[in-house]
Amino acid sequence: MPGVWVLAENRSQTLELLTIGRFMAGKIGTSLSVFLCQDRESAGDYMACGADEVLLLPEIAKDQSLDAYIPILSEEAGKADPDLFLIASTFRLKEIAARVATRLNTGLCSDCIKIYFNDRSGAVEMERLMYGGAAVQRVVCQSRPIMVTVPPRTFEPAGTESGRKGQIRSLKESPRSAGRVLERKRRERESKDIREAKVVVCVGRGVEKKEDIALARELAEVLRGEIAGTRPVTEELHWLPEELCIGLSGIQIKPELYVGIGVSGQIQHVTGFRDAKVICAVNKDANAPIFGVADMGIVGDLYDVVPKLINELKK
Ligand SMILES: Cc1cc2nc3c(=O)[nH]c(=O)nc-3n(C[C@H](O)[C@H](O)[C@H](O)COP(=O)(O)OP(=O)(O)OC[C@H]3O[C@@H](n4cnc5c(N)ncnc54)[C@H](O)[C@@H]3O)c2cc1C
């Protein structure tokens, strides 16, 4: 059956995709299906939140690759010919999305921040940032299914509607494997994955020496957040692990609160957090570009301001 399909790795991402999935299914005039890989007891919730059908994927251990889903998803999509396939832009699912799109001989529009139905042309259109966030690209996909990846927290989570019901269908493992794993080596992370963090304190080159990162760490702890850095701090000075670099060549985050201390706010960095709900900055230069994107700014020396902030927050 065609329709709008949703695939995510966890409950919060699934609920966010159900919001846009329900909206688009209504616009296209079709049904909404959601794939469920874990947390199977959520099937009823997802139906209450708008899914007409829950498709249960075979369970895969948490630390295993999701490769086994590639033939299952490709075969299902090949049979059902969905209108729109929405996939959460997680590290693992981005790869799955690209490989499924290749098998289906269709395009993949990655990291979309808007998806809508153009009433005049009758086409589904997507918008995504490009040139480090300096421009918005509008995309119309010419092939089917339209496959789209969506960064976490792009949409609000779907709410429940009473009385909604749907069907549950279990999908079987495919005899056609996506490939054979010869060896698996775990890459040791030096830090937590901060893409899901609600509060991120970012250290910029305004911090004079490595030991002073302790100040930012303390602020992050008081705010119950995580620490990150600009490229000079992570990739050049290596004062923080490279995986904590925010920006064009690092990771994109969308926390509730971003606090930049000693960060100038160059576009390549700002593109990594511009969708944060609240942006705060501490910089001694009143003309620093970060104040152009900040909701709240303190002009001052971070060595003076941050300890005072910590004290006030502790109170
Ligand atoms: C292709 C490309 C990709 C890039 N990708 C990324 C990326 O992904 N992420 C990224 O971060 N950068 C990236 N960059 C680099 C980016 O252009 C900037 O150079 C970088 O973000 C600047 O980092 P910063 O703000 O820490 O340092 P600076 O620009 O040196 O700013 C330091 C700031 O600290 C302030 N300051 C100094 N002392 C104090 C003090 N005591 N108290 C308060 N404020 C103080 C200064 O006024 C200044 O504004 C990229 C560049 C290129 C060309």
Radius of gyration from the CA trace?
22 Å
Net shape? elongated
Number of helices: 9
- By CATH, the architecture of the largest domain is named 3-Layer(aba) Sandwich
Care to describe what's here?
The protein is of the alpha/beta class. The chain has two domains: 4-170, HUPs (Rossmann fold); 194-314, Rossmann fold (3-Layer(aba) Sandwich). 28% of the residues lie in helices and 23% in strands. The chain has nine helices and 15 strands. It has helices spanning 11-28, 43-48, 69-80, 91-104, 213-222, 231-236, 267-270, 290-293, 302-314, and strands at residues 4-7, 32-36, 53-56, 84-88, 108-109, 112-118, 123-130, 135-140, 146-150, 167-170, 199-203, 226-229, 257-261, 278-283, 296-299. Strands 5-9-4-1-2-3-10 form a seven-stranded parallel sheet, sandwiched between helices. α3 packs across α4 (91-104) and α5 (213-222) runs parallel beside α9 (302-314). The longest helix has 18 residues, at 11-28. It starts with a strand and ends with a helix. The model has no long low-confidence stretch (mean pLDDT 92). Flavin-adenine dinucleotide (FAD) binds at residues 204-206, 230-233, 245-250, 262-264, 266, 268-269, 272, 282-285, 288, 301-303.
